[in-house]
From TrEMBL:
This is Carbonic anhydrase. InterPro entries: CA_dom (IPR001148), CA_dom_sf (IPR036398), Carbonic_anhydrase_a-class (IPR023561), Carbonic_anhydrase_a-class_CS (IPR018338). GO terms for biological process: regulation of intracellular pH. It comes from Pleurodeles waltl (Iberian ribbed newt). The keyword Metal-binding applies. Reversible hydration of carbon dioxide. Pfam families: Carb_anhydrase (PF00194). Keywords: Lyase, Metal-binding, Zinc. Its cofactor is Zn(2+). The keyword Lyase applies. Coiled coil: none annotated. It comes from the Eukaryota. PANTHER family: CARBONIC ANHYDRASE, CARBONIC ANHYDRASE 7.
Length: 266
């Protein structure tokens, strides 16, 4: 172990090696999982998800060496989600993507064994109970991540603002201003979801996440997907190697007796 930054998605430092530095990788509520749709339990008492992103304020876009991320001003509750399985509202902190090299892989969650080309994660934290994001990230009810599958199809015009900004953050460790982007435009029309208790899917893999995975994927064009694969790099500008940022996903982890609930009847 050479420190907390020493992980990635390569052969030597990829998901199968993470447990060496982060033993929780083999814990009881790890994510992602394969969602078996027939095994999900419909819970009629699950409320509809309320997503109030009206007055959200995006700050910047960055390449953290593992993904491309858009961060938000989270100093008050103006951007919150509530309802669903949640007892209190959770504030939006950031969103980021996971993707593959081809369209048959890339998502972290899978549904009945099927992968999607990409998965969007909207990360929220419990500011009612915890005073900082970091504190929430260490608590069993600290975070909520909404997972949205991206499938290939027609162009998603709202995603162009992001794909157009990728050139500014090609290299690991770079950041650019990114104001006025409302992730509401990335939600599918149906907010039907599966929910279960899990973890961060990247080190430190904290078991602090209430997962809400939307059933309906959004569609983006193959050309848009290619921009993620071709523009972004795992490597920093000063490094000699130029390593494309692809396959930045963790494969499904054992369910270990957990129950997946569905907000809808299949
Ligand atoms: Zn993620």
């Amino acid at each position: 172990m050479t420190g907390q930054h020493c992980w990635g998605y390569g052969e030597d430092d990829g998901p199968s090696e993470w447990h060496r530095s982060y033993p929780i990788a083999e814990g009881e509520r790890q994510s992602p999982i394969n969602i078996v749709s027939s095994g999900a339990v419909y819970n009629p008492s699950l409320k509809e998800l309320t997503i109030s992103y009206e007055s959200c304020n995006s700050l910047h876009i960055s390449n953290n060496g593992h993904s491309v991320m858009v961060e938000f001003d989270d100093t008050d509750d103006k951007t919150a989600i509530s309802g669903g399985p949640l007892e209190v509202p959770y504030r939006l902190k950031q969103f980021h993507f996971h993707w593959g090299t081809e369209c048959n892989q890339g998502s972290e969650h899978t549904v009945d064994g099927k992968s999607f080309p990409s998965e969007l994660h909207l990360v929220h934290w419990n500011a009612k109970k915890y005073s900082t994001f970091a504190e929430a990230a260490g608590a069993p009810d600290g975070l909520v991540v909404i997972g949205i599958f991206l499938d290939t199809g027609g162009e998603h015009t709202n995603l162009n603002r992001i794909t157009d900004a990728l050139y500014m953050v090609r290299f690991k460790g770079t950041q650019a201003q990114f104001h006025g982007f409302n992730p509401r435009c990335l939600l599918p029309s149906s907010l039907d979801y599966w929910t279960y208790l899990g973890s961060l899917t990247t080190p430190p893999l904290n078991e602090s996440v209430i997962w809400i995975v939307l059933k309906e994927p959004i569609r983006i064009s193959e050309k848009q997907m290619e921009k993620f694969r071709k523009i972004l790099l795992f490597s920093a500008e000063e490094e000699d190697a130029r390593i494309r940022m692809v396959n930045n996903f963790r494969p499904p982890q054992p369910l270990k007796g957990r129950c997946v609930q569905a907000s809808f009847q299949s």
